[in-house]
Amino acid sequence: MKLIILGPPGSGKGTVAERLEKEFHLKHISAGELLREEVRKDTLIGRDIKPVMEKGGLVSNQLVSAVVKLEVQNKKQYILDGFPRALEQAKGIGELKINKVLYLDVPLNVVVERLAGRRVCKKGLHNYHINYLPPKKAGKCDWDGTPLLRRKDDAPAAIRERFRVYQHETRPVIEYYRKKGLLLTVDATPDPETVYGKVKKTLRLK
Ligand code: AP5
After folding, report:
1. What is the distance between the alpha carbons of residues 102 and 171, in angstroms, rounded to a whole number?
2. Ligand 1 center to 83 CA (angstroms)
3. What is the model's pLDDT at position 206?
4. Quick one: which of 8, 2, 1 has its CA closest to 173?
5. Residues lining ligand 1, Cβ inside 6 A
6. Peptide bond before 84: cis, by omega within 30 degrees of 0?
7. Pairwise CA distance, residues 59 & 63, whole Å
8. How far is the CA of 31 from the centre of ligand 1 (A)?
9. How many CB atoms lie within 10 A of CB 72?
10. Which segment, 101-105, 127-131, 142-146, is predicted with the most confidence on average?
11. Pair 72, 29: CB distance under 8 Å
12. Which pTM does this prediction carry?
């Protein structure tokens, strides 16, 4: 399966994708994570995109499309998390032949609380919530024991900008896939376990 997961910032795209990867061995490709890795490694690309990402803006379509296309090369099954999120990006990946597009539908007031309580491990690979998905040991990643941190773009001003960008750029992508008949919508407001159960049912995964 080639699956895209779309939804507003904090809707749970990464959380769902992480569980699908673990249970069904579908490679989880997060556009945001690929870009953050460039920033962590302090590459030329990373230096260029850091300010845009920290403010909650979108990285250029050309750059993010190139990074993701490189990552999916020669892979038959994967989950694209957070890509495409602009119409130009969606129109540029026709050749990938995506099978399903999962839309995590959550009201904005719910996602603000999720982002405010989100913590990520130092390596950026695993994410938690101080109330809804706490780590076993406070402040430490269950998987690698690294300290849990708050993402820079989870600051209030950056969250506001991410929502603005989502409404203007990403909503049309959701409509684009709806018209193509690929969109599957899941109400992602309940707790993580319930949402994951609904996702598996909707994707007909057992
Ligand atoms: P990205 O990392 O993709 O950020 P995002 O889309 O804003 O999504 P988030 O990672 O914030 O949230 P999520 O939906 O994955 O939720 P999560 O599972 O973490 O992108 C970051 C930046 O990179 C962008 O702003 C942009 O600059 C750039 N970028 C990325 N893709 C790009 C593209 N295609 N084009 C251009 N630029 C791009 O969950 C959030 C919190 O809620 C966690 O704490 C989690 O534990 C908790 N939680 C999850 N599910 C539930 C639940 N059901 N109930 C309660 N809590 C829950």
Report:
1. 13
2. 11
3. 78
4. 8
5. 7, 9-15, 31-32, 35, 52-53, 56-59, 64, 82-85, 89, 114, 117-118, 127-129, 132-133, 153, 162, 188, 191-192, 195
6. yes
7. 7
8. 10
9. 16
10. 101-105
11. yes
12. 0.93
Measure 73 CA to ligand 1 centroid, in angstroms: 23
Residue 202 has pLDDT above 90, yes or no: yes
- Of all protein residues, the one whose alpha carbon is nearest to atom 22 of ligand 1 is 32
The separation between CA 42 and the C-alpha centre of its own chain, rounded to angstroms, equals 22
The band of 108, judged by pLDDT with boundaries at 50, 70 and 90, is confident
Q: What is the pLDDT of residues 26-39, one digit of tens each?
A: 999 999 999 999 99
Supply the range of the domain harboring residue 90: 2-203
Q: Chain-centre distance of CA 183, in angstroms?
A: 16
Q: What is the domain count for the chain?
A: 1
Which CATH number goes with the domain that contains 81? Answer: 3.40.50.300
